[in-house]
Amino acid sequence: MIGLMLVLWLLPFLLISIVTTYYMYGSHSQNQIDLELDRLDFVNEISADRLDEIIALSKSATYRRIINNSYAAYQKDMVSRDSFMQTLDAELRSLYSRQEAVRTVNFWVTDEDDPIRSGVYSTNSGASYREVQAFWADIQEDAKEIAKDLGTRSYFYVPDDGGLYLIRNMLDSNYKVMGVIVIRLNEEYCFGNLTKMEADTDVTVQINDAPITIEGSELSWQMSVHRGQAVRQAIFRGGVIWECTIYRNVTIILYPP
Length: 257
Description:
By secondary structure, this protein is α+β, with helices and mostly antiparallel strands. It has two domains: about 30-50 and about 190-255; about 50-185, Beta-Lactamase (2-Layer Sandwich). The protein is built from six helices and ten strands. The protein has helices spanning about 1-65, 65-75, 80-95, 130-150, 185-190, 220-225; strands spanning about 100-110, 115-120, 155, 165-170, 175-185, 200-205, 210-215, 235, 240-245, 250-255.
């Protein structure tokens, strides 16, 4: 009898303790999620700024007019083909060969039967001339098709075998397409802050529906829709997938440990 009374007397305190612990744990977990989401938003801003930087760099060759003016002179037979190619090579090296944001830059003139082309690589991003050559062999034909419908827009392209490229048409003084410039981005520079997330976190960047695995295993937003809810926080494998759009159709997806 005394034991039963003791149990009944302790039961409310036990229930209060359980409920308090539950809410405290839930509140702590939510606070951790909110903290990490705030951190992710900050990292996203950095990545967005760096993607904007790449777009600005792609416009530099047009705005400086050196390539355009030399090409106009070449079309009027005022300079030779070799002279124009030397100007093209020199200008691309001047603009891009020391840019940390860039791995390679490839450019070709579109209206030549024997197209004039040039490519450079950045010594500050660990690239090599082999990447320039690989572009001509493996990527250029896809880039040509994409550029046909671009007009003055920029387009982020992810080939099946990896890498991230920005494709842009270069216009002449009459606003007609004279050539195409393709920049391979330095992914470490653009998304390196995403590698500093909590240990064992899977990180995927999704651009134009093509995933780039930054850390760990490849993730997709479709997985979170299937397993949880299609919101910024989606339950998945007992953890949480976090998703934030950082630039137009660029999406970062994370699965914390």
